[in-house]
């Protein structure tokens, strides 16, 4: 029987297997960020050194400042400095403050060519699934696993099952990878991917740009999946060509020949198959505290009568926390803040989409745009996107995780409603008491200039 893309990568990394089905895997790339200090402490307390500093790369992102903030907590700077010190001590290449390669680990990694097809990549961060967009097997690991990889460059893992999600048909105007993944999560549930690695396939996936594929795979974890991946193709090869850490010249051509074999065989078996028609998807927003509360922007907050008895308690808690009126139109929800950024949606393509909408008006509420990396920032500035944002009253910041998780102090005030391009909307995610609605960059920019959740297609007169 044929093998899936996942099988091919998994099997080429197995060093040893136990009878209980767990395998010891070789790790090709280990990315560490500034919230990984605990793992380095564990390593040191055990008297160990990093086994393969040449395969380990550091990135300052969670705690890094995105603007001059007189109230900045010195502890946040200390986290950034600690990563730099650990990297220096262990001989690891690390991209910290003031490095032009710095960025959110899941934005800067692929853009530097650190993520390559067929490789096994891990990072102590749940959104490591992002890197699967390049045809890598990539997943997040816990702090003690980070310490294990630092010490051995290997990891014990239970073999996950595979799920293939096929998206056929064409996506409509202003329907993006973000709308696609939110719809997938609504369809299979926030726990629907538990125990699986998802392979995305089909016409709509083939047609996605590399940046959109990164957005899609990024949120696989929000469906509970171990990872998400897409077979590498011409889009992937064109994206990787010339990236500083990718193979160069003749070696690149040889690598591409090998990468062409990285796809599921026609007779390969996936443990679960799901199919969604791209034409059925509209610009989408979440209303609650789980990404599965995603709905087309044309919809309403569910009414009491729509809720199953077993979910009633949770529904009522959500309505109260989010300050919602059951049955209200989604577009009636006024926002207090807008955040355009995060490893889901802070790449150049995202900022271009947001800028197109920003041109149509001026921000009615405080809006920040946080590029995902220094490279994205530089390129956006070269194109004049920052000027467009300035003119629209959007604040242009330095790269980092920022308001996605509020670990660096960029937070949404308690009780405030935020239109956000990030990936998590649970209670308190963007700061204690914050209320988050997830959406695409164009939809977030539309909310900024109207002051409420908005169907970007109507704003632009493109609704079909
Ligand atoms: C801080 C880090 C470990 C965390 C994660 O694992 O995802 C963060 O990136 C997040 O998005 O919540
Ligand atoms: S941008 Fe948000 S989701 Fe991504 S790594 Fe940073 S905190 Fe996690």
TrEMBL record:
Reaction equations catalysed: (2R,3S)-3-isopropylmalate = (2S)-2-isopropylmalate
Pathway(s) annotated for this protein in UniProt: Amino-acid biosynthesis; L-leucine biosynthesis; L-leucine from 3-methyl-2-oxobutanoate: step 2/4
Annotated Aconitase/3-isopropylmalate dehydratase large subunit alpha/beta/alpha domain residues: 7-451
Residue sites binding [4Fe-4S] cluster per the record: 343, 401, 404
Alphabetic keyword roster: 4Fe-4S, Amino-acid biosynthesis, Branched-chain amino acid biosynthesis, Iron, Iron-sulfur, Leucine biosynthesis, Lyase, Metal-binding
Any Pfam family: Aconitase
Cofactor note: Binds 1 [4Fe-4S] cluster per subunit.
Enzyme Commission (EC) number: 4.2.1.33
CDD domains: IPMI (cd01583)
Domain of life: Bacteria
Cofactor field: [4Fe-4S] cluster
Keyword Transmembrane helix found: no
Gene Ontology terms, MF aspect: 3-isopropylmalate dehydratase activity
PROSITE patterns: ACONITASE_1, ACONITASE_2
Family membership: Belongs to the aconitase/IPM isomerase family. LeuC type 1 subfamily.
General function of this protein: Catalyzes the isomerization between 2-isopropylmalate and 3-isopropylmalate, via the formation of 2-isopropylmaleate.
Quaternary assembly: Heterodimer of LeuC and LeuD.
Protein name: 3-isopropylmalate dehydratase large subunit
Organism: Billgrantia aerodenitrificans
């Amino acid at each position: 029987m044929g093998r899936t893309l996942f099988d091919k990568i998994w099997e080429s990394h197995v060093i040893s297997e136990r009878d209980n089905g767990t395998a010891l895997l070789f790790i090709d790339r280990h990315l560490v960020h500034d919230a990984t200090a605990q793992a380095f402490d564990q390593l040191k307390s055990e008297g160990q050194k990093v086994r393969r500093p040449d395969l380990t790369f550091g990135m300052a992102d969670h705690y890094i400042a995105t603007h001059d903030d007189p109230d900045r907590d010195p502890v946040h700077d200390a986290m950034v400095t600690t990563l730099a010190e650990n990297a220096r001590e262990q001989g690891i290449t690390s991209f910290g403050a003031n490095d032009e390669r710095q960025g959110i680990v899941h934005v800067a990694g692929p853009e530097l060519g650190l993520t390559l097809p067929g490789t096994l990549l891990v990072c102590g961060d749940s959104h490591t699934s992002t890197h699967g967009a390049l045809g890598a097997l990539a997943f997040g690991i816990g702090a003690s696993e980070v310490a294990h990889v630092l010490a051995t460059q290997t990891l014990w893992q239970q073999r996950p099952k595979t799920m293939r999600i096929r998206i056929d048909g064409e996506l409509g105007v202003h329907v993006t990878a973000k709308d696609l993944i939110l719809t997938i999560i609504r369809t299979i549930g926030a726990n629907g991917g538990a125990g699986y690695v998802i392979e995305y396939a089909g016409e709509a996936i083939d047609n996605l740009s590399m940046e959109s594929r990164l957005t899609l795979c990024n949120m696989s974890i929000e469906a509970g999946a171990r990872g998400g991946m897409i077979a590498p193709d011409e889009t992937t090869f064109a994206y990787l060509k010339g990236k500083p850490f990718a193979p160069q010249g003749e070696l690149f051509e040889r690598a591409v020949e090998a990468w062409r074999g990285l796809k599921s065989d026609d007779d390969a078996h996936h443990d679960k198959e799901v199919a969604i028609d791209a034409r059925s998807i509209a610009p989408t927003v979440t209303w609650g505290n789980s990404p599965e509360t995603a709905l087309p922007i044309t919809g309403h907050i569910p009414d009491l009568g729509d809720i199953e008895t077993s979910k009633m308690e949770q529904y009522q808690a959500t309505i109260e926390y989010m300050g919602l009126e059951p049955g209200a139109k989604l577009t009636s929800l006024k926002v207090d803040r807008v955040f355009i950024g995060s490893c889901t949606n802070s790449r150049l393509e995202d900022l271009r989409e947001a800028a197109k909408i920003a041109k149509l008006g001026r921000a009615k509420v405080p809006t920040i745009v946080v590029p995902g990396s220094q490279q994205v920032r530089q390129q956006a500035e070269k194109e004049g996107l920052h000027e467009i944002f300035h003119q629209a009253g959007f604040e242009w910041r330095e790269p980092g995780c920022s308001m996605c998780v509020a670990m660096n102090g960029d937070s949404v005030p308690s009780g405030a409603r935020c239109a956000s391009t990030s990936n998590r909307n649970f209670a308190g995610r963007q700061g204690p008491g914050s209320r988050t609605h997830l959406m695409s960059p164009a939809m977030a920019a539309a909310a900024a200039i109207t002051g409420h959740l908005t169907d970007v297609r109507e704003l632009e007169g493109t609704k079909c």
